[in-house]
Design a protein that fits this description.
single chain; alpha/beta; Rossmann fold; 8 helices; 9 strands
C-alpha cells in the first residue's frame, strides 16, 4: 500500500472505509483506558474520522496523522472548523481547538512527538497495511511510544484467501507477535460483523469478526 494508492483513493472518492458516525465500540471501551483529560492521543491513518472529534469531546488533545491533504481539509471543512496551519520537518500541521492533524507519514514522526502521546486509537491503520508493512509500523511507531501509554486497537479477522485487502485480516496471533514484546495486550471484544458489512459478503467473505484490544506500553 504505497502512498500513491491512498492518495488516489481519496482523489477518486473511493472511501468506503470512512464511517459517518462515531464508532460505537470506541464509545463503549474508551473508558477502559482510564486516560486523564488533557492526554494527547495519537490517531494514525486518521482520514477524516469523526472519532477524533469524539475523543476531543472527552477532554483529550488529539493528534491525527494522515497522508492525504484532501482528507485533512475535508475533515475541517465538513465540521465547520477553521484550523491554524504550520509547517514542520514532519509535514503540515492543521490545528483547531483540541484536534491537530499532521498531513504526513506516521512512520516519520520524531521521538519527541511520540514521547508526548499518552494514548492511541487505531481503528483503521493496522488493518490498512499489508503484512510486509505491519512490522515496520509496529517497530517505528508503537515501540517508540512511552511507558504507560494506553489505547485501543481494532482489527478484522476473516479468511484472507477470500478477499484481497485492504482492509486486511490481522489475527490475534499476529497482533501479539507484533506488539507483545513492548505491550500488555487484552482482548476486550470479539464479534461477528459480516451481517452488518454486506459489501464484504458480496466480495466472497464467509465470515468476519472485529476484535477490540486494550493495550498498555510496558515499562
Amino acid at each position: 500500500m504505497e502512498t500513491a494508492f491512498w492518495l488516489q483513493r481519496w482523489r477518486e472518492g473511493r472511501i468506503g472505509f470512512h464511517q459517518t458516525r462515531v464508532m460505537p465500540l470506541l464509545q463503549k471501551y474508551w473508558p477502559r483506558t482510564a486516560l486523564p483529560k488533557g492526554s494527547r492521543i495519537l490517531v494514525p491513518l486518521a482520514g477524516k474520522s469523526l472519532d477524533m472529534l469524539w475523543l476531543a469531546e472527552q477532554g483529550h488533545r488529539v493528534l491525527g496523522v494522515e497522508l492525504s491533504e484532501l482528507a485533512v481539509e475535508q475533515f475541517f471543512t465538513e465540521n465547520g472548523l477553521h484550523p491554524d496551519v504550520r509547517e514542520s520537518a514532519m509535514g503540515r500541521h492543521y490545528t483547531a481547538g483540541d484536534v491537530e492533524i499532521l498531513c504526513g507519514d506516521v512512520l516519520a514522526l520524531d521521538d519527541a512527538t511520540l514521547a508526548g502521546c499518552a494514548g492511541f486509537y487505531d481503528r483503521a491503520a493496522l488493518i490498512a497495511l499489508p503484512p510486509e508493512m505491519r512490522g515496520p509500523y509496529a517497530g517505528q511507531v508503537y515501540a517508540r511510544l512511552p511507558a504507560g501509554c494506553r489505547g485501543l486497537l481494532f482489527t478484522l479477522e476473516y479468511p484472507q484467501v477470500e478477499m484481497n485487502g485492504p482492509p486486511f485480516s490481522v489475527p490475534e496471533a499476529e497482533v501479539r507477535a507484533l506488539h507483545g514484546e513492548w505491550w500488555d495486550i487484552d482482548v476486550l471484544d470479539r464479534r461477528d460483523v459480516l451481517a452488518k458489512e454486506p459489501h464484504f459478503a458480496e466480495r466472497g467473505v464467509s465470515r468476519m469478526d472485529t476484535v477490540a484490544y486494550l493495550m498498555e506500553r510496558k515499562a
